[in-house]
Fold each of these.
Amino acid sequence: MRMLTGKFTRIVLLLLFLGGLYFLATHKHRQREETRQAPVVLTPGCADKLGRYGLASADYYQSPYLLQRTRTSMKVRGYSDEDVRAIQRGCNIVDDTQGTLAKDKGLERWNTTRFIRGSHASCDHCHQGIGDKQDAAGNRLKGSLSLGASWAMADMYDRFTGLLLPYELRQMQCYINSSNGYKPNIADDVIRDVTAYSRFLSAALGLKIGNHYEEQGIDEIAASATPKQGDDYVRGAALYRHKCQGCHGPQAFGTEANGRVVAPALAGPNAWNMQSRNYFHYVSTILPGFICRNMPLGEENTLSNQECRDIAYYISNLPRPAGDRQGPLMALQQQMLMAVMPPLMRLTGSGRSIEAPAPER
Amino acid sequence: MKSPASAAKYKALLGQRWPNLSGHLVVGLTLALVTLPQAVAFSVTLAGVPPHFGIYAAIWGVLFCTMLNPSRIFHGGPNTAMSAAIGVTLLPIAPPFGAEYMGYALTLGLMAGLIQLLIYLIRPLSRMLDLISEPVINGMICGIGLFLIFKSLTTFGGLPFNTEVEWPLWIAWQSFLAVLEIGNIHAIEIGSITLITCVIARQFEPLRNWAILFGIAAGTLYSEYLSATRGLQNTLVEQIGNLSSIGPVYPSLPLFSPETMPDVVAIVPGAITLALLGLFQTVAAMRRMNRKVGGYSDSRQAIFSDAVCNCLLPFLSSLPTCASFNRMWLVHQLGVHSRVAIASSALWLLLLVLFLAKLIAIIPMPAMAAVIMLLGANMINWEDIKPHFKDRREAVVFMGSFLSVLFLDLFGAVIVGSVLAVAYSKWEQAHPNISVTGNVLSVRGSIYYGSLPVIESMYHGVIEREGSAVIDFSQCYYIDQEGIRWLAAAKAGQKASLADRRRIESRRELERREAADRKRASGRRRKRDRRQRSEF
């Protein structure tokens, strides 16, 4: 009898557990569906950009950008209400990944912060201009990591693993290659919405699928593109003080004002990790390429190739989180470094000269 | 053509040789039915290869093992931990289910087989496997069990396989949240129905061995109902797919070419892990099941059979093989300890695959994931773990081994497990039982470099207190060279004398017995060497 009661209890407990999980799953699914149907509150940046590109629900779409620049614009298939909401949500995610402008960041940004450790990283930091960086005249810029151009590239081979990656998979790679993150599942709304936004950008800019545009990806700078002086920590530190410290802070830990990120961390717990492709000692061409073409803001393309490599070299020697595959010991070591180094530098006065006001940009 | 008389003669001969042949065949069928879903699930969900890899391992792996291993309870075939290790090793190298991935899987299996052969040929290495203690093995098994549950979460929720391989606990949590938020509700329903049916069937003794089959049947029926009412294009539930191309043999070649060499070199640590994981489980399973049935068979024979099988199987499109705890347990429970029954399970499986391929193709993947989760949960057996928590040191070793599976990779777990096992036994030896009566220091245990500091501290305490000491080592069973030198130095120092309280006759008797033992052992070795030479 006792054995029978035990078996019965076991079955009832399992039923309760699975029933509870099922109930929770259906509740979460319903919540997501309601969010998908709800009108989207745009960030100021997205309201401006999508307004300029004339995003609206209609039978056909004609790009105002192309019309203005080329005086001609093809009519392409339009967007449904559902498509428009997805594009708007995608734009919001790129502009405000951390959800500081959202009322409920869990739902409005599809929990993007869950996939990024630290409180700084945002898509817009690398994919500037909400994934569509242009100069004042509306020209798209070389090496500016345009999301529209990246979508137009369609499938491409990963240079390091040799895998053929569609846009969605490349997007997933962003979370581990450019931040200290974790890949969301490919079926997640966050991937779907950012893809919808990128696809819309390519239509708005008139980009043709399968083409390679110079604003796509990074204009990488290899050592062979420099006068072969070697990458130098001291030169990098001096350049950092003059060119970067004003925004990114003396120890490159980033700056915040009123809870919002002014300039993202380049080192420390909020920065990308040691297995990210931004890490100079892992891939030495990507970060210098990004710096040269996109930094300092407003003064892009003013640094020489060697200067960009020096700054990247210096930044990558500052303490940052270990990569996930480097194991718990390395993780512990880096956490200790990040905790110990800043007060130690203040104590020994190493940061004193660095804390001097940066020259005006 | 044979005459009826000769047929009757053969039948009589068969009956004399295997009096209970039909019973053996029924046990074989049960085993085949239990192995089939496991074989498919291990290959598809864990190893990332098509289902025929697991099926061929369950056919040819089992047959080869039965031929080479004299144990009457040994059941080889595909294995959870080994399949998971293949997935973990190859995911960063190539996309699963691709031609390259499959080639690498075969290369990995072959390398593991060759490493196992090396371990067999170098006798001290194979002997080292016996030194892995039970808490280490149980810790690893529990860790792998939990790992299997985590790994199956995404498939259970009908989500695409996430290629992340690091930090299992972190990923498990993320996968759990993903299943709740974006999982396919139909897949969750199918998985839950499979799980509930399995658990309910397991509560009834006569149905216990059929539980997995019932679970899969229930999950498949529900999946078919959903497909019929809503259409597969709307439910989007993944199924195993067509197996009709499977024949009795499917020859294959491992991938070795100049272009692939960097990747082949990169998977060598994975191959060592795979080889050791297989052998650990085989040796541990043999040890445990032999004790269960009260028999004995040499673990080296099991190592040899595993190694040879794993060298052959990559040429037959098969996953590597090793002992399976759960299926050996099933053989034991069915009460028929026979190699005929085990071999017949492989043949039954071949027939099932040849004639019921269309039925197998519609099995939904979430049902498979549910089965894997259940197997993972079964690997965590509280009755096996409980004794380890009665002793603090055993508990530490168990937890170390268990956590290292979850926080490091499987290779790291093998290393931590081995180091802990050796450290555990060394720690035991380094603390001999020393009693002091007056100035007599009685040492019970080993006198070697590790235990000397402990003995020395006691010895100097006695010298300080009493002025002299008598070291009684009659209960010592091992003294190394450093120990002998220390004893000699202590004696030469005029303050200590040595005592061996064993009676002279018994000592002589002991020496005589030891000499006879040595002689017998060398004779046995010579005979075995001769026999081995003749075999090869």
Note: DSSP finds 15 helices and six strands in chain A.
Amino acid sequence: MSVEFIYPEFEVIRNENRCIGCRVCERQCANEVHCYDEEHQCMKSDESKCVNCQRCVSLCPTRALKIVKSDCTLRENANWSNDTIKEIYKQANSAGVLLSSMGNPKPFPVYWDKILINASQVTNPPIDPLREPMETRVYLGKKPSRVTRLANGELSCELPPQIELSMPVMFSAMSYGSISYNAHKSLALAATELGILYNTGEGGLHEDFYCYGENTIVQVASGRFGVHEDYLNAGAAIEIKMGQGAKPGIGGHLPGAKIVGDVSKTRMIPEGSDAISPAPHHDIYSIEDLRQLVFSLKEATEYKKPVIVKVAAVHNIAAIASGIARSGADIIAIDGFRGGTGAAPTRIRDNVGIPIELALAAVDQRLRDEGIRNQVSLVVVGSIRSASDVIKAIALGADACYVATAALLALGCHLCRTCQTGKCNWGIATQRPELVKRLNPEIGSERLINLMSAWRHEIKELMGGMGINSVEALRGNRLMLRGIGLTEKELEILGISHAGE
Amino acid sequence: MKIEGQVRIPSGCAISAVISREGKRMSGEMITNSMRPMHDRSNGLGGGFAGYGIYPDYKDFYALHLFFNNRSTRKECEAFLKESFEIVQSEIIPTRKIPAITDEPIIWRYFVAPLKSALVSAQMDEKEFVTKTVMKINTELSGAYVFSSGKNMGTFKAVGFPEDVGVFYRLEEYEGYSWTAHGRYPTNTPGWWGGAHPFTLLDYSIVHNGEISSYDANRRFIEMFGYKCTLQTDTEVITYIMDYLLRAQGLTLEEAASVIAAPFWSTINSKEDVELQKKLTYLRTMFPSLLITGPFSIVLGYGGGLMALNDRLKLRSMVVGEKDDKVYIASEEAAIRTMEADVTNIWSPAGGEPVIVNVKEGAY
């Protein structure tokens, strides 16, 4: 070996006593880790190709396989970690920008885990969701500042366009191209069944999925892939993607290898050409330009669809959100720095942006201070992992949450964080037909429905414990939260008291 | 220890109210006595009353009731008021020394009218201007607290049991066409008179029994519109919500009730009247942050009427009774029987179902 050698990260441990040589692992691994040694009549593995996606482990009929972290390490160094050193080797080998997938894995504080939820005792009663109605329905959209009455004195019941959700959770943007046809179909089926929405991402909408339009958010990103009039009118809402939490300040790059067949057609770009979204929208260099795009989209859809503006949580997010609220947008989606991605430069993913919890708290408070909180709904995204994260986000001030990683996990993702290779063994982040077909959309949607139904139950239980029987009464209800192990400054930004106060 | 306003103090309570549809005036003695059988629903840490129609001689003026910590604060506050109000009468509110009520602040009332020039300069209507003035005194003038600010109505409250508070304020000397009363059972010792109820703003007064779970959602929403929740009590935020919905947004009482105690979506969806369904959906969608959850029974007093309302699950007791021109409302039937032994037609309104009683036009 040479100076270029980097010892593999994982080891494949095969229990020879259990292995029956059925070669399932070999067939299942798109990374070609496993092969059958005819001469010795046994399975072999090349662990240098292993990404630890657990596909072989999950499908091995005799549980003969496990993947473990390699214990071959460099000399320990608290400053120069193994990963840091290996990244230097990789860059010295390749001269390339390091690429990563999914959300920031670094040990930054997870504020959700430092916030605790209240419950009723004595002075008011908890409510039992099994015995009393417990409402999770929300409407997203602009609320007018005044009621108006008709000439006969009756209320005029006209409202700007609203999105109705049966629960305050939606599936976040993941483009067709970055994920597979079957993954999109699973999301569309589940959203329809659940009475919530999924989001096309920036890759357009496959013609097979126009029938799920009422449960679809169509996205317009800087590359404008697949954007045309019918597309804009196909969904229940339009989202302008200004930024993404995993990679604030940069665009996207879907390699030409993934621009095949229907992906090419849906994106309206030639097969094999790289799909590169610019870092900015080239018609938006300032807030007044955003206003023009918002109203262009509203004109194109006759003011029937709410317009969402999605931004990454960056340092000045409160002022940015305030600007967006005044730009005509109906909904603001804020994506925190732990949000996932199909591919992002590692340095950006791991170092740019701020936590969604702080961004949400700052934005909600700022919009209230300015008296314009009612002009927009707030959707937060960027590592919402459970029903309790949802409850905490809503109590901090969100109208709803987007989830993406959690949805992919439900579909089988094992968070190996190598989506950028396009060899997803679970049929999610790939366009290779033999891999895509591993994900059955019927089963996938059922698992998504199970997950969301479970969360809905948990949301109801948590709300009932607080004596709250409608999610509207939880929104912005920060008295229901307490911090644990947080500094005065963190508590001040979150707008909550410390546990015990 | 933090005082009320710096910390949120949950309370249990007793409420009681009476109104004459004919506008016949009743002395405050009856409502005081109605609180006696509900003694155990209070714990001596707050009681109060609101009377409507009690200042007929000054009915065109705002009656400001204030607590002052000391004489210099009163002087300072008077100087502030004189900048933008005509003060037609300024006097101490008569009280009776009794052992049950101690440590009283300086309790004063002014009958005032805002100066036209001040209204023009502030570009506000009269009510808006008075509201802003009350907020300003209560948040910025330390040691002064406006606890009543309506026309031809007044609030009387103190730390103590409500039946003692009524005696302390000599309520038998006032006559009103409607009265509401409140006894408080806070879980802490606020020891501050401003924390007692009713809570009022302009003509609106609220007596409330319960602890709402939506408090901070409601508070953070309503504070966008210039209201400042200085006491952190449910009653305060409910009063501001009612002021916002009824005065600022111009909703009817029924419409406001459909916002704060909104019917469940399942109930709305089952309505056969399509117009009603549309209206209820509109109100819930328009004002989601003003839905009040958790237990409450409230009586909202206003010029010429009362509205009683329970939370939509009816998690607090509230009964209504009638006799001739009078309607009685209370946490317990015993309170009503004290006011009118031969009361007829006693019922328990359903959760979220407003009971609105108006004095006939021209009789108040």
Note: The longest strand of chain B covers residues 11-20.
